Amino acid sequence: MNRISRTFAAAACAIGLAWATTAAAAPVQVNIGIVTAPSFVHTLSAQKFKEVLDKELPGKYEVIIHHSGALGSETQVLQQLQLGTVQMCVCTTGPVEAFVPEIKAIEMPFLFSSYEQTDKVLDGPIGQDLLARFGKAGLVGMHFLDNGFRNLTNSKHAVKEPEDVKGLKIRTMESPTHLAIWRGIGANPTPMAWPITTQLQQGVLDGQENPISVIAAAKLSEVGQKYLTLTRHVYSALVFVGSKPFFDKLPAADQKAFMDAAAQASAYGRAQVRDNEAKELAALQTAGVQVVTDPDVVAFRARTQPVYASLKGDTKTIVDKILASEK
After folding, report:
1. Average pLDDT over residues 31-36
2. What is the pTM for the complete model shown?
3. Distance of alpha carbon 311 from alpha carbon 93, whole angstroms
């Protein structure tokens, strides 16, 4: 090999090494699927996760937040997590029931009485046990955060007792437990992926049930939802969920960083929901929403007792532990 050839060969090697080094240093994409818009706590919490992870592992991961259902419904996103084509999501626990059946334990009607109790349960051994069960579904349960207590809205009339709900077409999450709750109360429940703005505008649905934070952020008062009843019938947790195929490939130190970031983002999300709830409710009233603050909760609870009667196995055991935690 002559001198010129050696020079070109050396240059080629240098270029190749530089390219390889650059390629090796390229950040790993972490796609987070969310069905709600940027103003919702789901996305706000994901943004906080990104901020914390970027600080802990600078330049190593590129967190991309896909909001507003860009990657599909929550059920579809969870399926993509199983495949490893999406790396994370922030979702409500209702649709998780199809993947982790025991999660229905925390979806029981009138089970929780306060945020203090939900924190005690979900941050304690019961919550950790539930998160550990995600693994058998090809998922990683990372941390619980808040969506808030769910309440009923509708476009027809004020609701004070179960009889007022009879026949109303109410959107529910894609969850057998939520369908059973509203059938028991007497509504005509319709499982449907979020968003549902068009269906409410067109009268396909009479109403829906969601926490105050969601009702306010979605501006449901502008699509005919003029009546709000503070039923607080189900505590609606959110959960950071990871893809097990993705997490299993991460170094142990990075796995810990992801979990720590999810914990910090969850605390941030809880504060967003709780600190703004009263203000959001007042804004809804100012917008003309009629609010029933004192529904007949005893009557609503009585209508939902068959949901408890259907419990069995591990799910029943978990519910019994939660009930005991309040004593």
Report:
1. 97
2. 0.88
3. 17
